[in-house]
Amino acid sequence: METGGISGCTFRIRRDFCVVTDSVSPPITQLGTAGFRCWRIILVLAILTVSVATHWPNLTLAPEAPSDKIFHAVTFGVLTFLFWRTHWLGSLWALALVMTAFAAIDERTQSLEWFHRQTSLEDWCADMIGIGVAFLLISQRSIAKGKSTLSQMRAALADAAEREMFCRPFTWIAMATSAALGVLVGVPLTVAVGKIIFRDQHPWQTAFLGGVLFAAVAIQLTWRSALRAAVLRIARERMCFCCGQHISKEDTALAGTCGSCGEKWRRAQWVPPAEVRRGAAPVSRRSLILFSLLGAIGIMAVLFFMQVTLRLGGNQWLSAEMLDLCSYAFAIVGIALILRFMSVPYRRHLANEGSNCLACGHDLQGTSSSSEVGICPECATEFVRIKA
pLDDT band for position 184 (50/70/90)? Predict the structure, then answer.
């Protein structure tokens, strides 16, 4: 068992999850820049493609094609995610302002006479729905950078691991393969379910949404697996978070400076957070009741919203495409918010990682240690307490 800690915090990591091997990957030069370069190239190409497609003269979709409102929402949601990954803007509010302005300019310029297109307020609303859903999903997966030293180091390690894994071509190949498999599974499955159970009248639209949904889930699972491998690789090889150079394992100091780029490092930054055992973050009866109520309210809200939109559709206040899109977006928002509330006990448990034993939960703040190494009096798990 290897353990580590920061600033009076304690944490541990099982050796079988961080095995030291003789094979060390070559250092990645300029890890910070290379980690974002691919995302920036993809974003530029995506913006050019979208701009050409939305301004192509007299471009119309076939009658059996999915609704153009769905295309608008998915396209601008993906653009928002790509823009966020480039790290060109440090603030999410600035990103929201830029994407809103870009959607408005893109839609407004379509009415220029040499494009032979029309500006549609509903298309812009669909763009905004896609941007809003993308921001909600970003907030679900973004790393919480708390005020404690431990949470900040965990966030820095995960951020460096994401940049490191996207410097490797295999990551992109694995994600593309996962997306293709998701489409191959999602398209026939959703079409079959829609036709058999719901008697769907729009199979092409259902196929498109099913492919996008299953591809997104497959990419997310591959992303998490690759991120975990990258975290363990950086921790095992002690790579500098800035330039990717390896810090010598013979250097046993608690802190130092990278000899290549001058970035400051601490030995504890390469210790990944220990895995929490199943059931280690108990949920109280009050929390279970609260989550059940939230789930019931969310389902009722979705059903109520769909009934209201159907009535509005009968009065022709909104187009059928916008009503469908609003229903999809509302369902996604409801599910994401419910999942957000359900993760509160788990986040609280991780917040106690620095002061409680991760194995049994015993309070370690008053436990003495010699040479920075201590033993939990309840379960004999080793821990390290490093002072800032």
Answer: very high
Contact 33, 246 (CB under 8 A): no
- Domain coordinates of the chain in residue numbers? 13-286, 287-354
What DSSP string describes 67-136? PHHHHHHHHHHHHHHHHHHHTS-S-HHHHHHHHHHHHHHHHHGGGSTTTT----HHHHHHHHHHHHHHHH
Distance, CA of 176 to CA of 167 (rounded, Å): 15
Give residue 143's Cα distance to chain centre.
Answer: 8
How far apart (Å, rounded) are the C-alpha atoms in residues 293 and 284?
A: 14
C-alpha dist (Å) from residue 336 to 76, 203, 281, 347, 359: 19, 26, 20, 16, 30
CB 364 within 8 A of CB 376: yes
Q: pLDDT value at position 81? A: 93
Within the chain, what is the greatest distance between any pair of CA atoms? 78
Pair of tokens at residue 366: 């008053």
pLDDT per position as a tens digit, 270-293: 776 655 554 444 455 566 566 566
Read off the tokens for 266: 């601490």
